[in-house]
Amino acid sequence: MASERPTQRPRVFSGIQPTAGSFHLGNYLGAVRQWVALQETHDAVYSVVDLHAITIAQDPKELRDATRLAAAQLLGAGLDPERCTLFVQSHVPEHSQLAWVMNCLTGFGEAARMTQFKDKSAKQGAEGTTVGLFTYPVLQAADILLYQTDQVPVGEDQRQHIELTRDLAQRFNGRYGDTFTLPAAYILKEAARIGDLQDPAIKMSKSASSPKGIVWLMDEPRVSAKKFRSAVTDTDTVIRYDPEAKPGVSNLLDVYSALSGESVARLEEKFAGQLYGALKTELAEVFTDWVQPFRTRTLEYLDDPAELDATLARGAAKAREVATRTLEAVYERVGFLPPR
Ligand code: ATP
Ligand code: LTN
Q: Are 167 and 102 in contact, with CB atoms under 8 Å apart?
């Protein structure tokens, strides 16, 4: 089962939650940009993971809107439904079905060690922390394993979840026979963790960043430009890449390099002898030039929700072809009596 596609391109799978009004720059540089590149070389499957989004209370209308907005942004960023599979997680019921089986293979202590759960549950408090939030990494494992995934493009914060996914796949394969491909994390060093513009020691994050430290892709570009111009740096004046000693400047160089394609070394040369203000102002311009067409395309996709929904329906149908096959094999191996 796991080696069913020997001659095809390696498969990548990744998911993004439809939880906020807009993606932020960390989401784009850490994950989505790689998704776009990988559709050229891989059999790429991507999902707007709405089942994950309800692990924290969501307003129904906002969730529906955020799901369309997430899909539109992915298309706006350059995903091409002809070259990848793009779908909404809840449209493919096999995700929940496989998640249950994987839940029954996961140790309670094993799940309790997930650092993202510890962080998020601390933020939610005892009342707001659901069992869904606790088993969320197991649902993520099911997402990945359903598609016999080889590589998972994500930011650094997801590494532990990919490790858990590998452990669960190995456990299942060991117990029931070879069924799942063992996936590997695909994490680009340079963009693995984009820092908050006001506090570069923490990652830019929709749940942790201050309003001035987070760059929302769908904001008016002049709002984001201002955030770049007032980014926190340090009292020194030299533009040099040193994440330990100069986290603010290094973060700006990382972002600049990722958006422009120029290497950090080249940028250090370019800005030699200049003050931080020059770097910030130019970066604001580079960002604006990139984000304007992205926003325009995203808004165009949102303008035609019927077409967008049709695209997502075609994606779900493609995804299900693979998902049903994996789930069928799993059910059979676990020993469920086939219905007739
Ligand atoms: P939260 O803080 O609520 O967990 P988030 O802002 O981290 O949300 P997610 O929806 O969890 O965003 O992440 C989507 C993708 O973006 C994941 O692959 C994640 O690793 C990546 N990502 C998120 N923030 C960053 C960041 N600051 N730098 C690099 N990648 C990031
Ligand atoms: N947990 C991830 C989102 C996510 C995901 C996935 C990523 C859900 N399922 C499968 C990669 C593969 C997050 O919070 N960023």
A: no
Q: In a 3-state reduction of DSSP, which class is residue 16?
A: strand
Write the pLDDT tens digit of every residue in 76-91: 999 999 999 999 999 9
Sheet with 11-16, strands from edge to edge, namely 85-88, 43-48, 11-16, 151-153, 184-186
Distance CA(303)–CA(274), nearest Å, equals 43
Among 123, 189, 206, 227, which one carries the catalytic annotation?
206
CA distance 310 to 199: 41
The ligand that comes nearest to the alpha carbon of residue 140 is 2
- In this prediction, residue 193 carries a pLDDT of 86
- The DSSP secondary-structure symbol of 271 reads T
Closest among 320, 256, 319, 293 to 75, alpha carbons compared: 293
Residue 137 CA: nearest ligand 2 atom is 1
- What is d(CA 335, CA 292) in angstroms, rounded to the nearest whole number? 54
d(CA 328, CA 198): 49
Ligand 2 proximity of 15 Cβ (cutoff 6 Å): yes
Element holding 87 (H helix, E strand): strand 85-88
The residue whose two tokens read 């820092």 is 195
Residue ranges for the chain with pLDDT beneath 70: 1-7
- Residue 238: CB partners within 8 Å, gap ≥ 6? none
Kindly state if the Cβ of 252 falls inside 6 Å of ligand 2.
no
Q: Choose among 177, 251, 164, 165: nearest CA to 209.
A: 251
Rg of the chain (C-alpha set):
21
Using alpha carbons only, give the angle 253, 32, 68 rounded to the nearest 5 degrees.
130
Question: Around 49, how many Cα atoms within 13 Å sit in the side-chain half-sphere?
Answer: 21
Residue list, ligand 1 pocket, CB within 6 Å: 16-17, 24, 26-27, 30-31, 154-155, 157-158, 191-194, 203-208
Integer angstrom CA distances of residue 32 from 13, 86, 302: 12, 12, 18
